[in-house]
Amino acid sequence: MMDGSGSNHGMPAVRRCSGTIRTSLAGAAFGCALLLTACTPSDQGNPSGGPTRGSPGTGVPSPVQTPGACVAAAGATVQDIDPEDSPVPPWNKPAGQELMVEFSTSQLSARYAGFVSEAAAIWSESPCLNAVAVQACSTGSNCVLLQEDASRSRNTDGEMEWEDSGDYMESATITLFTRPLDRATDNGALATIVHEMGHALGLDHRLARTDVMNSVTDNTTNPTPDAVNFSNLVAIYGS
Ligand SMILES: [Zn+2]
Known about the structure:
Blueprint: E1 13-18, E2 21-24, E3 36-41, E4 99-104, H1 110-123, E5 129-134, E6 142-149, E7 156-164, E8 169-177, H2 178-183, H3 186-200, H4 227-237
The chain binds zinc ion (ZN).
């Protein structure tokens, strides 16, 4: 099991947001069992009140053209990556099969468990992977544990930490900070969860400001990742 307080021991590298602009602290990698975190900030740094709902032009996920197969062109690399982000490692995808990643929701309230199921379906549009919301991870699976934290959140509404072998992610934990998320709109909360699950699937922050994998998300963020994220997954996992 992951230790819920894992982000505090071993002085892990931390990706933290503060206020409107998320800052990134690049972490030093020391080989195995590295713990890192990534986060999305709360609603534009204005957690108490702030803009609330009904922002026009957002909130309706739109279909995204996704690659037809998990086959990367020769020399394909990830695109539009925020250079300030510290990279997350990929899972070890079995050749010729989709990568299966389980997201355990047994510790979540119904609202957030529902968003995890939605986000899993969104990311599973990728031909490279199958993201599945489960009650408890099956033995030996690629497992991401989701948990809630009702404490103060340093202007963060989500955080992801992981252990890796140096080359591959081995397990991960996503912490949802319910103080800001309980006030977020459904759209905003879903965007946060899609964002953190994107990290847990191997994606780094994007430069595109409106994309859900940008370092800043809020209630107006379209929770559906843009096509570049899906081509990046092919670049990461494609054969
Ligand atoms: Zn992030």
